[in-house]
Amino acid sequence: MRETRFTDTDPEFKAAVPPTRRRPRRLRRTALAALLTAAMVLPLSAATRPQIPAPPPAALPTPLTPATLTTAYTANRENAAEAARMAAAHGDRSRAAADRALASPTRHLLHFDARGTGRATEVLGDLAHATRVAVLVPGSDTTLDTYARFHTAAESLYRRLTHEAPRTTPTAVVAWLGYRTPATISTTVLTPGRAGQAAPHLREFIRELRTLTAPGPAAVSLLCHSYGTVVCARAAPALAGLGVTDIAFVGSPGTGADSAAALHTSARVWAARGAGDWIADVPHLRLGLFGTTVGFGTDPVSPSFGARVFAAGPGGHSDYFTPGSASLANLARIALGETTEVTRA
């Protein structure tokens, strides 16, 4: 049997997160404890998905350079094709289809690992000649099985950038699924553990990115969604000197930092939340509970956090990269460095 999973937009998850704004702190603590209890019980009651066989990652040129990008893309596509064959032989049609899509000649995989829930770093655009690069960091339940929706978000942004960017500003978008994301209903989604594991990997990737653009390092914007905002916040202090000019948090449950200043970054810090995003009803607290830290503290769109809050329109938790949306337009302006054109909330 397949493991029972809930996504950010499922009614079961919304029901588990009661509206708590304007309620006493004690009720918020109770709500957070109830959510943690549900997160502990539901995954344990589900059947465990059998391990899907997959090849080890392809051997790539070391170090990667602009001249070896094509070689890396080819090697990773071949690895994805082999992963698809192995998944199909195992009887997992869903994973086989996801791997097969990534093996398409049109896809540019900088890194790929089909083992477990999977990792993938995909490039949209001509990375070697880009002067501005947007790196998307996803939130919960993003795996190879659900990668298509993450790719769709990256593709929407890339199309917007290519439409808006001056010809003198070549751009690229990187979809970075470089960590094991938590399940939406799980103990891990309420704690910073996965973010702490992911942050060093994100830092190493940003460092690697500086060697992949010619004639020099590109300006990098980190666009972080949901639990991905916790990852970006954890990585932020270690990104000094690596060309990150902007960090944007969208649909954030909190970042684990009390303020933008606490991120210890010289990058501009942005935040936004759609009017229909249920994340607004998640208690923005950080508590010691059951021997661990639960919750992520200050709401990034609150005045006390100190981020540059921009308009995101009426959309919900999964709508920040919807074509034609206010949030996508503003994220593109941030990525292009057109910060005076960003519409504020």
Provide tags for this entry.
33% helix; 345 residues; 8-stranded mixed β-sheet; alpha/beta; two-stranded antiparallel sheet; 10 strands
Describe the structure.
With 345 residues, the protein is α/β, with parallel strands linked by helices. 33% of the residues lie in helices and 15% in strands. The chain contains 8 helices and 10 strands. It has helices at 11-16, 25-45, 69-90, 93-102, 147-164, 193-209, 228-235, 326-336, and strands spanning 108-113, 119-125, 132-137, 171-177, 219-225, 244-250, 268-272, 287-289, 292-294, 308-309. It has an 8-stranded mixed β-sheet with strand order 1-2-4-3-5-6-7-10, with helices on both faces. Strands 8-9 form a two-stranded antiparallel ribbon. α7 (228-235) links the parallel β5 (219-225) and β6. α5 (147-164) packs across α8 and α6 (193-209) crosses α7. The chain is globular, with a radius of gyration of 20 Å. Mean pLDDT is 88; it is low at 1-25 and 36-48.
* Weakly predicted, low-confidence segments: 1-25, 36-48
The dominant shape is globular
Look at the helices and sheets and give the structural class.
Answer: alpha/beta
Span of the ends, CA to CA:
45 Å
How do the strands of the widest beta sheet line up side by side? 1-2-4-3-5-6-7-10
> Which H/E pattern describes the elements?
HHHHEEEHEHEHEEEEEH
The radius of gyration computed from the alpha-carbon positions, rounded to a whole number of angstroms, is: 20 Å
The fraction of residues assigned to DSSP E strands is 15-25%
| Rounded mean pLDDT score | 88
Tally of strands: 10
Helix content: 25-40%
Distinct helical segment count: 8
The biggest sheet, with number of strands, parallel, antiparallel or mixed sense and barrel status, is: 8 strands, mixed
